[in-house]
Amino acid sequence: MDLRRLRAGEWIAVAGGIALIVSLALPWYDAPTEALTGFEALTIIDVLLTLIALLALALGVLQVTQDAPAKPVGAAVLTVVFGALAVLLVLFRLIDAPADGLEVRAGAWLGLVAAIAITVGGWRSLAAEYVRGLPPDLEPELRPTPAP
Questions:
Q1: Whole-number Å distance between alpha carbons of 146 and 131
Q2: Residue ranges of the domains in the chain?
Q3: How many Å apart are CA 8 and CA 14, to the nearest integer?
Q4: 77-99 burial: b if 16+ Cβ within 10 Å, else e
Q5: CA dist list (Å): 140 to 26, 29, 55, 68, 126
Q6: Cβ neighbours of residue 142 under 8 Å, at least 6 residues apart?
Q7: What is the pLDDT along the chain (148 residues), one digit of tens a residue?
Q8: Which of 92, 115, 138, 148 is geometrically suited to a Cys-Cys bond with 87, CB 3.0 to 4.6 A?
Q9: Which letter does DSSP use for residue 37 in this model?
């Protein structure tokens, strides 16, 4: 396990995943009598958002622990797709509150920023295809063959 393998994209996605879970524990709506957290106010969307946040965390874990790029790249693709879904779900709940008379609080806005960070982090993880330790001007087909 080497944390130096994490690039900016993975750091952004992991931070977004943590922020999304934290935002669900914060108040999302003001009811007439009390404040409702994301876990209290949302029905199935909170479960989906939690799973998407865990996927973003898994992207960082896979990048650190896997030697082959297949699993981290697959996780990055899923992170982009489901991160975009998370953005749409949070936007839906910002526009249409789960019940009448609820006012949006800061937790919902933090959830939106976190979902955007997950999507951007996954996208940047896919865009960063470089090998550490090689000169940047070295063409991929000119890389030396590993010694047996």
A1: 14
A2: 3-128
A3: 10
A4: ebbbebbbebbebbeebeeebee
A5: 47, 52, 30, 17, 17
A6: none
A7: 777 778 888 999 999 999 999 999 999 999 888 999 999 988 899 999 999 999 999 999 998 888 777 888 899 999 999 999 999 999 999 998 888 888 999 999 999 999 999 999 999 998 866 545 555 565 555 555 666 6
A8: 115
A9: E
